[in-house]
Amino acid sequence: MKGARYRLRPLRVRVDSRKRAKYPCAMVRSYPPPDSREPHRPSPLQHTLLEDAQAFVLGTLLCALGIQFLTAAGLVTGQTAGAAVLLSYASEWSFGTWFFLLNLPFYVFGWLRLGPRFVLKTVVAVTMLSVVSRLMPDFVGFDVLNPWAASALSGAVIGMGLIVIFRHGASLGGIGILALWIQERFGIQAGWIQLGFDAVLFAIAAIVLDPWLILASLLGAVAVNLIISTNHRRDRYVGR
């Protein structure tokens, strides 16, 4: 009606707490705290053939130099190569024969678990190391070499050489294949696995070899595996 006054009153709506829990407001959205969000990680990059080639050359050169340090000082090594050395001492078969035979089951295991690409790369790396280590004494020699210094130097360069080879999807055969598979499958670092194998190997070697040489050789084995365990980690390297 004309002249009538209208007053607007606020609309009050009561919502039952049980219904509020059943029908939450669509405008409300909760976000996880920033610290709980997973950080973005880039996808692994595939190495090119040229990158693999230079890595195998560098890795095998470093490993061959480390082996030269060991042999010049009369020391022993770990891994499958060390097992082959001990078996050659206890039998008439040569180191090369034992090393070849000990690697066969690991090649089969690697083919089934890690794929043919990994095994083929490993065969190439092992062949290159065999050739380079055979030629190394013709180019590198030592007039004075302390066994303890030789062990530490060999552990450092062999560890770096193995990391280069590992990061390009290969190994030097033997227990390294099993260690890499366990790292990929269960997250246990390959260096710790190889360190455990070396501990058993050197315990056996101490029965037949000079204790001081065993201790010096053990220093090199520890250096190799510590370098690998602290520098070869899946969460810090995305190349393949």
UniProtKB/TrEMBL annotation:
Its main location: membrane. Keywords: Cell membrane, Membrane, Transmembrane, Transmembrane helix. GO terms for cellular component: plasma membrane. This is Uncharacterized 5xTM membrane BCR, YitT family COG1284. It is found in: Cell membrane. The chain crosses the membrane at residues 55-75, 95-112, 119-136, 186-206, 212-230. It is a multi-pass membrane protein. InterPro entries: UPF0750_membrane (IPR051461), YitT (IPR003740). It comes from Jannaschia faecimaris.
